[in-house]
Write a structure and sequence with these properties.
Blueprint lengths: L9 H20 L5 H8 L3 H7 L3 H26 L2 H30 L11 H17 L8 H7 L13 H16 L6
Length: about 190
Protein backbone atom coordinates (compact mmCIF):
# COMPACT_ATOMS: atom_id res chain seq x y z
CA UNK A 1 0.00 0.00 0.00
CA UNK A 2 1.51 3.38 -0.97
CA UNK A 3 2.53 5.67 1.85
CA UNK A 4 0.44 8.79 2.14
CA UNK A 5 1.83 11.98 3.59
CA UNK A 6 -0.15 13.37 6.53
CA UNK A 7 -2.29 16.41 5.70
CA UNK A 8 -0.49 19.73 6.06
CA UNK A 9 -1.36 22.03 8.95
CA UNK A 10 -3.39 25.03 7.82
CA UNK A 11 -0.50 27.46 8.41
CA UNK A 12 1.86 25.22 6.44
CA UNK A 13 -0.69 25.03 3.62
CA UNK A 14 -1.07 28.82 3.63
CA UNK A 15 2.72 29.21 3.45
CA UNK A 16 2.90 26.83 0.50
CA UNK A 17 0.09 28.64 -1.33
CA UNK A 18 1.69 32.03 -0.66
CA UNK A 19 5.02 30.76 -2.02
CA UNK A 20 3.29 29.48 -5.18
CA UNK A 21 1.42 32.76 -5.67
CA UNK A 22 4.55 34.90 -5.28
CA UNK A 23 6.64 32.52 -7.38
CA UNK A 24 4.10 32.62 -10.23
CA UNK A 25 4.29 36.42 -10.30
CA UNK A 26 8.06 36.65 -9.90
CA UNK A 27 9.02 33.83 -12.29
CA UNK A 28 6.58 35.17 -14.89
CA UNK A 29 8.49 38.46 -14.77
CA UNK A 30 11.95 36.88 -14.77
CA UNK A 31 12.76 33.16 -15.05
CA UNK A 32 16.02 33.70 -13.13
CA UNK A 33 14.46 35.29 -10.03
CA UNK A 34 16.50 34.08 -7.04
CA UNK A 35 14.62 31.64 -4.82
CA UNK A 36 15.70 33.69 -1.78
CA UNK A 37 13.84 36.70 -3.23
CA UNK A 38 10.68 34.59 -3.71
CA UNK A 39 10.90 33.33 -0.11
CA UNK A 40 11.37 36.89 1.21
CA UNK A 41 8.43 38.28 -0.80
CA UNK A 42 6.27 35.35 0.35
CA UNK A 43 7.16 36.18 3.95
CA UNK A 44 8.65 32.77 4.75
CA UNK A 45 12.09 31.74 5.93
CA UNK A 46 14.57 29.78 3.83
CA UNK A 47 13.87 26.60 5.83
CA UNK A 48 10.13 26.80 5.17
CA UNK A 49 10.74 27.55 1.52
CA UNK A 50 13.13 24.63 0.96
CA UNK A 51 10.96 22.24 2.99
CA UNK A 52 8.20 22.91 0.46
CA UNK A 53 10.36 23.23 -2.64
CA UNK A 54 13.84 21.69 -2.37
CA UNK A 55 14.95 23.19 -5.71
CA UNK A 56 13.93 25.49 -8.56
CA UNK A 57 12.69 22.56 -10.66
CA UNK A 58 10.21 21.38 -8.04
CA UNK A 59 8.89 24.93 -7.59
CA UNK A 60 8.42 25.65 -11.30
CA UNK A 61 6.75 22.32 -12.02
CA UNK A 62 4.45 22.67 -9.00
CA UNK A 63 3.36 26.13 -10.19
CA UNK A 64 2.50 24.65 -13.57
CA UNK A 65 0.62 21.71 -12.00
CA UNK A 66 -1.14 24.01 -9.51
CA UNK A 67 -2.34 26.35 -12.26
CA UNK A 68 -3.51 23.42 -14.42
CA UNK A 69 -5.42 21.91 -11.49
CA UNK A 70 -7.16 25.22 -10.78
CA UNK A 71 -8.23 25.55 -14.42
CA UNK A 72 -9.40 21.94 -14.56
CA UNK A 73 -11.27 22.14 -11.25
CA UNK A 74 -13.11 25.27 -12.34
CA UNK A 75 -14.92 23.32 -15.10
CA UNK A 76 -17.09 21.29 -12.70
CA UNK A 77 -17.88 24.39 -10.63
CA UNK A 78 -18.93 26.34 -13.73
CA UNK A 79 -21.14 23.48 -14.90
CA UNK A 80 -22.80 23.34 -11.49
CA UNK A 81 -23.57 27.06 -11.50
CA UNK A 82 -24.30 27.92 -15.16
CA UNK A 83 -25.94 26.46 -18.23
CA UNK A 84 -23.48 24.29 -20.24
CA UNK A 85 -22.89 26.82 -23.03
CA UNK A 86 -22.15 29.66 -20.57
CA UNK A 87 -19.97 27.34 -18.49
CA UNK A 88 -17.90 26.38 -21.54
CA UNK A 89 -17.37 29.99 -22.63
CA UNK A 90 -16.48 31.12 -19.08
CA UNK A 91 -14.05 28.21 -18.78
CA UNK A 92 -12.44 29.25 -22.06
CA UNK A 93 -11.78 32.67 -20.49
CA UNK A 94 -10.24 30.93 -17.45
CA UNK A 95 -8.10 28.87 -19.82
CA UNK A 96 -6.92 32.07 -21.52
CA UNK A 97 -5.83 33.39 -18.11
CA UNK A 98 -3.92 30.14 -17.58
CA UNK A 99 -2.34 30.41 -21.03
CA UNK A 100 -1.07 33.89 -20.27
CA UNK A 101 0.30 32.83 -16.87
CA UNK A 102 1.97 29.84 -18.52
CA UNK A 103 3.37 32.05 -21.26
CA UNK A 104 5.02 34.15 -18.59
CA UNK A 105 6.42 30.99 -17.04
CA UNK A 106 7.52 29.52 -20.37
CA UNK A 107 11.17 30.48 -19.92
CA UNK A 108 11.29 29.04 -16.41
CA UNK A 109 9.58 25.81 -17.54
CA UNK A 110 11.95 25.52 -20.51
CA UNK A 111 14.95 26.01 -18.22
CA UNK A 112 13.99 23.22 -15.83
CA UNK A 113 12.71 20.71 -18.42
CA UNK A 114 15.45 21.12 -21.04
CA UNK A 115 18.30 19.91 -18.83
CA UNK A 116 19.49 16.42 -19.83
CA UNK A 117 18.12 13.97 -17.28
CA UNK A 118 15.88 16.71 -15.85
CA UNK A 119 12.17 16.42 -15.15
CA UNK A 120 9.65 16.17 -17.98
CA UNK A 121 7.05 18.86 -18.48
CA UNK A 122 3.74 17.74 -16.95
CA UNK A 123 1.08 16.73 -19.45
CA UNK A 124 -2.07 18.83 -19.85
CA UNK A 125 -4.26 15.83 -18.92
CA UNK A 126 -6.36 17.61 -16.22
CA UNK A 127 -7.18 20.41 -18.68
CA UNK A 128 -8.08 17.89 -21.39
CA UNK A 129 -10.39 16.04 -18.96
CA UNK A 130 -12.06 19.32 -18.00
CA UNK A 131 -12.55 20.23 -21.67
CA UNK A 132 -14.07 16.79 -22.28
CA UNK A 133 -16.48 17.26 -19.35
CA UNK A 134 -17.66 20.62 -20.71
CA UNK A 135 -17.89 19.41 -24.30
CA UNK A 136 -19.99 16.36 -23.33
CA UNK A 137 -22.34 18.53 -21.23
CA UNK A 138 -22.80 20.87 -24.21
CA UNK A 139 -23.24 18.01 -26.64
CA UNK A 140 -25.90 16.50 -24.36
CA UNK A 141 -27.63 19.91 -24.19
CA UNK A 142 -27.50 20.21 -27.99
CA UNK A 143 -25.56 23.48 -27.84
CA UNK A 144 -22.52 22.29 -29.83
CA UNK A 145 -22.07 20.02 -32.82
CA UNK A 146 -21.69 16.37 -31.84
CA UNK A 147 -18.35 14.57 -31.89
CA UNK A 148 -15.97 17.37 -30.87
CA UNK A 149 -13.13 15.86 -28.83
CA UNK A 150 -10.95 17.53 -26.23
CA UNK A 151 -8.04 17.18 -28.68
CA UNK A 152 -10.06 18.98 -31.39
CA UNK A 153 -10.95 21.72 -28.93
CA UNK A 154 -7.39 22.20 -27.64
CA UNK A 155 -6.08 22.41 -31.21
CA UNK A 156 -8.76 24.97 -32.07
CA UNK A 157 -7.76 27.24 -29.19
CA UNK A 158 -4.01 26.77 -29.64
CA UNK A 159 -3.82 30.37 -30.85
CA UNK A 160 -4.05 31.45 -27.20
CA UNK A 161 -0.45 30.37 -26.74
CA UNK A 162 0.61 32.74 -29.54
CA UNK A 163 -0.62 35.84 -27.70
CA UNK A 164 1.91 38.02 -25.90
CA UNK A 165 1.06 38.26 -22.19
CA UNK A 166 2.94 41.56 -21.96
CA UNK A 167 0.49 43.23 -24.33
CA UNK A 168 -3.26 43.82 -24.09
CA UNK A 169 -4.08 40.19 -24.90
CA UNK A 170 -7.65 40.08 -23.51
CA UNK A 171 -9.49 41.56 -26.55
CA UNK A 172 -7.64 39.26 -28.96
CA UNK A 173 -8.27 36.24 -26.75
CA UNK A 174 -11.99 37.12 -26.51
CA UNK A 175 -12.26 37.37 -30.32
CA UNK A 176 -10.46 34.06 -30.79
CA UNK A 177 -12.60 32.28 -28.20
CA UNK A 178 -15.81 33.76 -29.60
CA UNK A 179 -14.77 32.46 -33.02
CA UNK A 180 -14.14 28.99 -31.57
CA UNK A 181 -17.53 29.05 -29.79
CA UNK A 182 -19.19 30.01 -33.05
CA UNK A 183 -17.53 27.05 -34.75
CA UNK A 184 -18.57 24.68 -31.97
CA UNK A 185 -22.21 25.86 -32.27
CA UNK A 186 -22.28 25.43 -36.05
CA UNK A 187 -24.24 22.25 -36.77
CA UNK A 188 -25.51 21.89 -33.20
CA UNK A 189 -28.86 20.06 -33.04
CA UNK A 190 -30.35 22.81 -30.83
CA UNK A 191 -29.03 25.63 -33.05
Amino acid sequence: MPRQDPPQRSDAQRNRERILEVALTELSRCADTPLSQIAKKAGVGQGTFYRNFPNRESLVLEIYRHEMRQVADSAAHLLATRPPEEALRAWMDRLAEFAMAKAGLADAIRQVTSVPGGPAKPSPTPVAHAAELLLRANEDAGTIRPGITADDFLLAIAGLWQLDPRQDWRPRAARLLDLVMSGLRSGAPGG
